Amino acid sequence: MISPLAHIHPSARLAPGVTVEPFTTIAADVEIGEGTWIGPNVTIMNGARIGQFCQVFPGAVVGAVPQDLKFAGEQTTAVIGDHTVIRECVTVNRGTVDRGETRVGSHCLLMAYVHVAHDCIIGNHCILANTVQVAGHVEIGDYAIVGGSSAVHQFVKIGAHAMVSGGSLVRKDVPPYVKAGREPLSYAGANSVGLRRRGFSEEAINLVQQLYRTLFLGGYNTNDALAQIELELPSTPEREVAVSFVRAATRGIIKGPKRGRADGSEAE
């Protein structure tokens, strides 16, 4: 159903079964997939590509030009995968010449007031809780969860199946399969509960726990820790994903937890 009170450019490409509620504006260079619901007072701007069976709630803006002074009007896109939910007042900016697109995967949930900046790549099944702010060029892996009111620095990478505590300032890369919390953001254990929910075996979870104990608690520098991991732990998909992520971390990774003194105070 298309409301007569919506403004849709004649060149916009809407698949059968799309619903557009009143007072929504859809620009010319837009594609929306079958069965998607666009709520009232939504703005879908040029370059937006929205998949099938998505939900876009009031006040959201998809495809606005990047907040980047280097942007010169190049034709770029903001791509939203299938079955993704975009809640109230979310903003997803389109890409720049760097990547040409901003991409949010399928089956994601972007809660109210989330901002996804230009050239971000967000995987499938991700959750960004209320008011998460994601700067440009950030990459977030599949099944990652970022807690509410967190801010993610530009060019940071968050690995698959990671969980970041609410209110975090994410300045460094967060490896896959971990929980991260505290200030400054630090390793807070393997995301064992999340991995079990997603069908990882106990053997795989134990390996992840051993791997990160070596990396964050073993007293090694990063290169030595990776060498020790490859020497001591069997080659599994989880090991290879984690080791490759850490080796490719251009901003460096989060640190291990601070160790306390016997009197309960933190060591320097």
What does this structure look like?
The chain is of the alpha/beta class and 268 residues long. 16% of the residues lie in helices and 25% in strands. It has four helices and 27 strands. It has helices at 192-197, 202-217, 222-232, 237-247; strands spanning 7-8, 13-14, 19-20, 25-26, 31-32, 37-38, 43-44, 48-50, 55-56, 61-64, 77-80, 85-86, 91-93, 101-104, 109-110, 115-116, 121-122, 127-128, 133-134, 139-140, 145-146, 151-152, 157-158, 163-164, 169-170, 178-181, 186-190. The strands form three sheets. The protein has a ten-stranded mixed β-sheet. The protein has a nine-stranded parallel β-sheet with strand order 1-4-7-10-13-16-19-22-25, with no helix packed on it. Strand 26 and strand 27 (186-190) form a beta hairpin. Helix 2 (202-217) packs antiparallel against helix 3 and helix 3 (222-232) runs antiparallel to helix 4 (237-247). The relative contact order is 0.08. It is an enzyme of class 2 (transferase).
